[in-house]
Amino acid sequence: MKPALGPKEWRSLFTPEGKFYDGGVKLLKRVRNGGVEPSIRAEVWPFLLGVYSLNSSEAEREAIKAHNRKGYLLLRKHCLRKNNKESVDDHITSEEENPCVILEQEMQDKTGKAIPENQADESLCSSSSRDEDESEKSDVTDVEASRDDVASVDQSSVEDEEESMPLPKYSNTGGNIETETKLSKIARPVKSARTVEDFETWQRIIRLDAVRANNEWVSYSPSQAAVTREKAIESASAVCLKDYEHLEAHRIHHASRLVAILEAYATYDPEIGYCQGMSDLLAPLLAVLEEDDEAFWCFAGFMRKARHNFRLDEVGIRRQLNMVSKIIKTKDFHLYRHLEMLEAADCFFVYRMVVVMFRRELTFEQTLSLWEAMWAHQAARRAGITRSSWRKLQLGAPPTDDLLLYAIAASVLEKRKLIIESYSSMDEIIRDCNSMAGQLDIWKLLDDAHDLVVTVQDRIE
Amino acid sequence: MAHRVDNEYDYLFKIVLIGDSGVGKSNILSRFTRNEFCLESKSTIGVEFATRTLQVEGKTIKAQIWDTAGQERYRAITSAYYRGAVGALLVYDITKKLSFENINRWLSELRNHADSNIVIMMVGNKSDLNHLRSVQEEEGQALAEKEGLSFLETSALEALNVEKAFQTILSDIHQIISKKALAAQEAAGSGPPTQGTTINVADSSGNMKKGCCST
């Protein structure tokens, strides 16, 4: 293991205008091989996750940051309106008691110029199959009316067209759509009458997962760990979080941040919405990034690739399991045959590792190191850093979008002897994989994964 | 390949734990197999399982319990694991009406994907939260009767009725299998008793205890 990228070296990578001297190649190389020191993670991650381009200047980044912040606030506002609507529907909260109505108003005050929402609504409705706006019109109540007033005030106060901004939406640029379309044909047609989940369902499950999030992140973020109860309760009411009475202040605060960002994401990417496991991916980001808007956009960057795991049609997860299977088959046919015999060649036993990216198997710190290496690879691919320029830096393994899958395959290959000699059913492999926690050496695993990339990538991808 | 070893257990029964997210499936499992409870247990991704061997009606039964993710999204992968299950604990949360209302959806899920002879038990969990109750015990009982299921309220937190729930479902399964075996024996005239079709689980799932042959 190489030493992690530290603050001094990090600053030395930039020109006076705040651009990378070398387009970020050295950054990615360093992160790939040694990770990032905790003190600069919050600065480095937005580059790894594609929030900022590797070619951007400091001034450009400032502009993006401001724009992103505005976009995030819009998403949050949209979520709050949905919360209000639900409160009305449930007849639980009356107008004067509803903290979210008050909060929405406060938020507008704070941001100064409010953002017109009708435009945002239109853009949501066009891509959403839900007909909530229809139903919203049909049950106009006092709260509805008061909210409409607020909205109309917004509109009149923002006559200036330039201030308007559409609700941010996930859009797919690039990616592996083609592969996935091909794959969907072989995926078994079991969709049957499964119902589509709605936003309300997501909100419920998000809160459920948020209040049971653990606190292993605490030592990585002393400031968030020291949050006062008052502040924590404030952040909880900002997202209409209840059922937290049993939690300590820092966990209430953490849960509230999870809710805020996951809800915003479900609005941003309604095709995926919320799927259990996504909170596992977000929680470490929250520990490092203390501002919600920054955390959101980093998470959105992370999800560009990860979202495929959570698709309703399961095409993404099947592609990945298929690839782990192919890596094992190519590298170790004997082991593969044994897996076939146990009816485990589909590699469903690594399902959880793929979906939450080793989060359940690794410690907090190990997870961050693995993810940083993975993000560095993906950033190199995005930036078009070629195999040859990567080689010039004496990095054996070329950049890959799928480092995680190589790492998972490596962790299975490491157990080949045990699997071949002792396991006689898939159940035993599942149990083994589900109890790997704490047993993995992350840097050895990364070395093995890189070796696998070198030896089998040409035959896999 | 693997054969049943009589001195380890007489039968291996595969049971699935299903129900909405957050009703306490994983904690029922950990209470039963490890006598543990964790308030902050994470959501189950896909499926996980644990086993416990116990005595039921004088037989040694190895219960292999598969815990599944509750979210709709994971239904396709979790339902694949219904195959070979001889029992299902269908869990709802007595403080969450919706999880009770969804029982019917879960039942049709089982009818579509599980063996038609699967023994189903309905479980209303979190009975320790009586002050927050939104489903009355009688409602649960009535639905269970209507659907022909056995029923219990449990508290994984207080270790209340969890053991009893598993004992009940395992002995129900055992009785059905014994009857089948007997019927098969009668049909075949004399000869050694054969195992009923339902317990092919016991044949295919292997018998090797973890560790007994390794290293």
Task: Note the main attributes of this structure.
heterodimer, A: 461 residues, mainly alpha, Cyclin A, domain 1, 24 helices, globular, B: 215 residues, alpha/beta, Rossmann fold, six-stranded mixed β-sheet, disordered N terminus, disordered C terminus
Protein model, in words:
The complex is a heterodimer of chains A (461) and B (215). In chain A, 63% of the residues lie in helices and 0% in strands. Chain A has 461 residues and is mostly helical. Among the domains of chain A are: 7-54, no CATH class; 196-296, no CATH class; 315-460, Cyclin A, domain 1 (Orthogonal Bundle), CATH 1.10.472.80. In chain A, helix 4 (58-90) crosses helix 13 (249-268), helix 9 packs across helix 16 (315-331) and helix 14 (278-288) runs antiparallel to helix 15. The longest helix of chain A is centred in the first third of the chain and has 33 residues, at 58-90. The model of chain A is unreliable at 90-99, 108-162 and 174-194 (pLDDT under 50). Chain B is of the alpha/beta class. Chain B has one domain (9-180): P-loop containing nucleotide triphosphate hydrolases (Rossmann fold, 3-Layer(aba) Sandwich), CATH 3.40.50.300. Chain B has seven helices and six strands; from the N terminus they run E-H-E-E-H-E-H-H-E-H-E-H-H. Chain B has helices at 25-34, 75-80, 97-101, 103-113, 137-147, 162-187, 200-204, and strands at 11-18, 47-56, 59-68, 87-93, 119-125, 150-153. In chain B, strands 2-3-1-4-5-6 form a six-stranded mixed beta sheet, with helices on both faces. In chain B, 47% of the residues are buried. Residues 1-6 and 192-215 of chain B have low confidence and may be disordered. The A-B interface holds A 190-192, 194-195, 197, 201, 204-205, 208-209, 212-214, 246, 275-277, 279-280, 310, 312, 314, 317, 348, 351-352, 355-356, 360, 418, 421-422, 424-425, 427-428, 430-431, 434 and B 1-2, 21-22, 39-49, 64, 69-77, 79-80, 98, 112, 204-206, 208, 210, 213-215.
